[in-house]
Amino acid sequence: MMYTSALRRALRLIPAMAVALALAACDVAPAHLASPPPLGARDTASRSGTGFAAVVARMKPVSEQICRERTPQLDCTFIVVVDDRAGQPPNAFHTRDAQGRPLIGFTTAMIREANDEELALIFGHEAAHYLAGHQARMRESATTGALVGGLLASLSGADQATAQRLANIGAGVGARSYSKDFELEADRLGTVIAWRAGFDPLVGAQFFRRSPDPGNQFLGTHPPNPDRLQLIARTVANLEAGLPI
């Protein structure tokens, strides 16, 4: 009976783990999103163009095709948006809109800073997160972590505030446990998507040479940049050799 009561108490603490999960997530959707950028006939635009609109025109249909090939059970129609809030740092993210449709977003700072090859690799990376179901898998890990943290707190007789903090900590640890693996998985599949769209992922990967290296931090959300560069290079070598990815 003591265990059952503690478990029920721990379950009541889980909703608050959303705060920890939001902090642990690798890509967080902003509160405001602009309308989709003026891409014109985005899926039939000239493939010889340059700039963000041209990148999207090439990457979007390829990402959708690979989505249909690998995960036909998903909604594979991507919506592309720009976060035009002033002062936002270079960032890209994936999420779902109010109707549950897959959405890929870029801040204007990212669009200004990255070249076409880099934008293509980043686009592929975010699309890959969606195809791999990383958000759902991270939520599951966070829920498990919150349950464990809350259960241990309840069994120890901790007060409500302490138990809630431990549940939040458990959620954050759970969400971060696989985040580096998810990032590398998205890098690999994102490389394939960019490659199939006709971009050079090795050139795109130079973005990581300019970006601050997070290092190999314990429970960090992103892997070291050298690891990402090596994985992208291996993936391209396999693609060039015609090996299965």
Automatic annotation (TrEMBL):
<dbReference type="GO" id="GO:0004222">
    <property type="term" value="F:metalloendopeptidase activity"/>
</dbReference>
<dbReference type="GO" id="GO:0051603">
    <property type="term" value="P:proteolysis involved in protein catabolic process"/>
</dbReference>
<comment type="similarity">
    <text>Belongs to the peptidase M48 family.</text>
</comment>
<keyword id="KW-0645">Protease</keyword>
<dbReference type="GO" id="GO:0016020">
    <property type="term" value="C:membrane"/>
</dbReference>
<keyword id="KW-0482">Metalloprotease</keyword>
<keyword id="KW-0732">Signal</keyword>
<feature type="domain" description="Peptidase M48">
    <location>
        <begin position="78"/>
        <end position="233"/>
    </location>
</feature>
<protein>
    <submittedName>
        <fullName>Peptidase family M48</fullName>
    </submittedName>
</protein>
<dbReference type="InterPro" id="IPR001915">
    <property type="entry name" value="Peptidase_M48"/>
</dbReference>
<dbReference type="InterPro" id="IPR051156">
    <property type="entry name" value="Mito/Outer_Membr_Metalloprot"/>
</dbReference>
<dbReference type="Pfam" id="PF01435">
    <property type="entry name" value="Peptidase_M48"/>
</dbReference>
<keyword id="KW-0479">Metal-binding</keyword>
<keyword id="KW-0378">Hydrolase</keyword>
<dbReference type="GO" id="GO:0046872">
    <property type="term" value="F:metal ion binding"/>
</dbReference>
<feature type="signal peptide">
    <location>
        <begin position="1"/>
        <end position="24"/>
    </location>
</feature>
<keyword id="KW-0862">Zinc</keyword>
